[in-house]
Amino acid sequence: MEYFEIIIAGIFVNNILLAQFLGNCPFLGTSKKMETAVGMSMAVVFVLVMAGVITWIIFHKILDPNKLVYLRTITFILVIASLVQFVEMFLKKSIPALYAGLGIFLPLITTNCAVMGACVINIDKELTFLQALVASFAYAVGFGLALILFAGVRERVLLARVPKPLQDTSIALVIAGVISLSFYAFQGMVQAVI
Amino acid sequence: MAKPIYQEFTKGLWKEIPPFRLVLGLCPVLGVTTSVENGIGMGLATTFVLLCSNILVSLLRKVIPSKVRIACFIIIIATFVIVVEQVMKAFVYDLYNTLGVFIPLIVVNCVVLGRAEAFASKNGIFRSILDGLGIGIGFTLSLGALGLVREFLGKGTITVWGEPFFEGPIVNLVESMPSFVPFEFMVQAPGAFVALGLMLAVMNLIPSK
């Protein structure tokens, strides 16, 4: 039950994009077409879960016992950057079909603050290992859900006549606000740990 | 290189002011601007990291092999982020807690990495310092401006660096005008997107030159 609550909280209540504002650059950058949005979402689910687990282990088994907590930021970014490289090489060699789909989005993930942010939040909220695993998954799914919904609306807006100053990024942000408003309705649905 | 040197500084203040003209680094822009104070604090922290990383990248630009340059830039930036983190934890602990996860996330702020890649790795140290300062101050001003709009509408107050210098908010509509009801939407999550979107539209109305 506890893990179910974490999943609901991660996907809807504390959606990483719309309620916590993490990962907005890829949110605006890859949402112009549905295909790129789906590719990016898949890549994020893949990397975020792995990064969440690995950074949790490194923090609690290496940094914390050795009193190196202040090195958290630099360790995490290095772990994420090398993880992304590793995943890229692994996919290229063994699952070329998936690599072709995710290909160009993988390098972008290194600078996606949703990944780094989720890892830091997992540590800050003092989650246990299983909680961190479930929370990372929920955050990633929430990211994908928001991104795909947003891309769907944005494809339609391309056909609409938007006033000149509001065009492109500006109208996209207003739309994001409206989607965020609809996610706001989930506020208070669960009182979970994350 | 024909551009006069002062333009490296002034372009960051208007022509290339980060979140508006260059749409980069949006996460802190949306996340922390619930008040002027938070916005400016975040802006100053980012400016420090940007300035230091610009200086170091510019100094090392001939040493760093181009194939691993991004990794090197990220390590340089991460080092300065740790410095900021520790200093803020020691001296402004309340602000550090409010900004929370956004301080370590300066590492992945596209503005900082973008300037290292696009400017500091190609230009001399003096120009890089001016560029870092200009873009940093521009970023701080934009965060402050968005914080001002959101805090004023959403809470009816304007707080400029609360405790050390002033007691409480300098403007407080809720107290001075009892009939005023704050437009709370603005300080909540959806308001951030809408406020930034509308501010971008206003900036688009004004031509950049």
Layout: helices, strands, pairs:
The complex is a heterodimer of chains A (194) and B (209).
Chain A: H1 2-13, H2 24-29, H3 34-63, H4 72-94, H5 96-102, H6 105-109, H7 113-124, H8 129-157, H9 169-184
Helix pairs in contact in A: 1-8, 3-4, 3-7, 3-8, 4-5, 4-7, 7-8, 8-9
Chain B: H1 6-10, H2 18-21, H3 26-31, H4 36-59, H5 69-91, H6 93-99, H7 110-120, H8 125-155, E1 157-158, H9 162-165, E2 171-172, H10 173-176, H11 189-205
Antiparallel strand pairs in B: 1-2
Helix pairs in contact in B: 4-5, 4-7, 4-8, 5-6, 5-7
- Along the chain, the helix and strand elements of chain B come as HHHHHHHHEHEHH
Low-confidence stretches of chain B: none
Question: Number of DSSP strands of chain B?
Answer: 2
Shape summary of chain A: globular
Please describe the biggest sheet of chain B, giving its number of strands, its sense, and whether it closes into a barrel: 2 strands, antiparallel
Largest interface: A-B, 44 and 40 residues
SSE string of chain A, helix = H, strand = E?
A: HHHHHHHHH
Q: Evaluate the radius of gyration of chain A.
A: 17 Å
Report the sheet-strand fraction of chain A.
under 5%
What can you tell me about this protein's structure?
In chain A, helix 3 (about 35-65) runs parallel beside helix 7 and helix 4 packs across helix 5 (about 95-100). Helices cover about 70% and strands about 0% of the residues of chain A. Chain A is globular and about 60 Å long. The model of chain A has no long low-confidence stretch (mean pLDDT about 90). Chain A has nine helices and no strands. Chain A has one domain (about 1-185). The two termini of chain A are about 15 Å apart. Chain A has about 190 residues and is mainly α. Chain B is mainly α and about 210 residues long. Helix content of chain B is about 65%, strand content about 0%. Chain B contains eleven helices and two strands; from the N terminus they run ααααααααβαβαα. Chain B has helices at about 5-10, 20, 25-30, 35-60, 70-90, 95-100, 110-120, 125-155, 160-165, 175, 190-205; strands at about 155-160, 170. A two-stranded antiparallel sheet of chain B has the order 1-2. In chain B, helix 4 (about 35-60) packs across helix 5. Chain B starts with 5 loop residues before the first helix and ends with a helix. The model of chain B has no long low-confidence stretch (mean pLDDT about 85).
